[in-house]
Backbone:
């Protein structure tokens, strides 16, 4: 990956939060995209994770209860800080311990999101906030919503670092960066990708874990 091509975008809410992206031709499990959004340091550096959590927490009123944060895309560090920020802001937890759980789902061989039996009590009849890294097509988020509802959870909100969509399943998506911040960012179905039609080489296969160059 050519690090010289990195572009940095700063959040309007906090100039300490910067989104790194690299233009090119990238392949995900869902689509082909024009930019790789590098969330690596956001997910692993405590100072950045704390700033992100504070920015996201500002979107939630204390009247909305949150018992459990379901962390997608490896955002457990951000999730832990978000739980702390929500607690400081007076967001109530209705579970017996009056504290917010931070958990990560698993995916089975067919791509379905599952929770083991020992995690089900943290989902069933609990108020859930889903935390995402980036949302493009919304298909992964929809699977997450379906899974939480299947296990008896009540979804109270959706948060993300970057999102192309403003809402899903009648729920607003609160994100730090939106599509207007990256106007050249596009996502295409694999069978209708103009970059492929123009024979532009694929730079890397990307996922929530990072990228693998080709």
Residues:
């Amino acid at each position: 990956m050519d690090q010289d091509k990195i572009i940095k975008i700063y959040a309007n809410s906090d100039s300490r939060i910067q989104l790194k992206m690299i233009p090119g031709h990238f392949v995900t499990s869902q689509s082909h995209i024009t930019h790789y959004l590098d969330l690596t340091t956001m997910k692993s550096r405590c100072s950045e994770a704390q700033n992100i959590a504070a920015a996201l927490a500002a979107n939630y009123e204390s009247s909305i209860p949150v018992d459990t944060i379901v962390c997608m895309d490896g955002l457990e560090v951000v999730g832990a800080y978000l739980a702390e920020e929500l607690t400081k802001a007076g967001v109530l937890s209705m579970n017996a311990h009056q504290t917010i759980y931070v958990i990560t789902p698993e995916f089975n061989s067919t791509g379905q999101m599952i929770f083991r039996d020992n995690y089900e009590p943290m989902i069933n009849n609990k108020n859930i906030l889903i935390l995402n890294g980036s949302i493009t097509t919304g298909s992964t988020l929809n699977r997450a919503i379906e899974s939480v509802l299947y296990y008896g959870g009540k979804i109270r909100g959706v948060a993300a670092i970057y999102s192309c969509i403003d809402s899903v399943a009648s729920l607003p998506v609160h994100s730090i960066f939106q599509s207007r911040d990256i106007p050249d960012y596009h996502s295409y179905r694999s069978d209708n990708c103009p970059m492929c039609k123009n024979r532009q080489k694929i730079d890397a296969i990307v996922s929530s874990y990072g990228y693998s160059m080709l």
About this structure: The two ends are 10 Å apart (CA to CA).
